[in-house]
Amino acid sequence: MGSLIRSHLARLWKSPVFLLVLFVMLPYGLGLANSAIGDFQSGAVTAGLWGQPLFDFGLLAGILLAVVFSLFFGVEYADGTLRNKLIAGHSRASVYLAALAAGLLAALALYAVYLLAWAPRLGWMVRNYPTPEPGRLALCLAGTALLIVSRCSLCVTLCMLVQRRAVLAVVLILVMVVLFLAAMQVQDAYETTAAGGMQMTVDGAGQRQWVFHEPERPGAALAVLYDALPGCQAYRYMELDASPAMLGWSAALTALTTAAGLILFRRKDIR
Hints:
Elements: H1 2-13, H2 16-41, H3 46-55, H4 57-72, H5 75-78, H6 81-87, H7 92-116, H8 122-128, H9 134-161, H10 165-195, E1 197-202, E2 208-213, H11 220-228, H12 230-238, H13 244-267
Antiparallel strand pairs: 1-2
Helix pairs in contact: 1-7, 2-3, 2-4, 2-7, 4-7, 4-9, 4-10, 7-9, 7-13, 9-12, 9-13, 10-11
């Protein structure tokens, strides 16, 4: 399997799309750090000062990985590379796991470059601005890494199962967009329920009315979705709001998609 991983990484390093995304991470990471500093100086809370530049990549990772993986792994079926690997004697499990390992390394490399972009300012920020508890930062960092891993696992699963390259790109991007939109709806519903406040309603005559709602405890299903959906997790890590349950859901999603992907890939008719 090691040779398969090395082959993926060598081809990835020659991929113009991957190199372009890798390069874009530099100004993107630095720009977010500068934006967070400006927001803090304008009165934003300390969590945003550190959470935005450290963990915003988790919010962007889904679309980035969908684009890179669809273009990179999508050619495996088109040019017959995948079939040739099986003919050469590699097992389906090793082919699948090699793609997953290479995908994880690529995703974490993007995150590392994103972090390194503003690392030179880190010492200055520590000296001039308040810093949050190291434990909160460590939990959010671990959570963001697991979030990236879970999205990578989902992308690789689809890459290994969808043969047509054009269809794969559309499917990956649609899945990430649907997950993002679902997370926004869940986050809005959860925060509205938990925080209470004014809410607009429309009566039977079509008249708008503002009604005050007392804070309530969100339902069990809403609480689970708030912890489990990647988009909700990404926003919460940016606010330094992490819990062990969130990490558990990311690990569970990774295990589930990997197991399902392996089972379905072993049964897939590869031409």
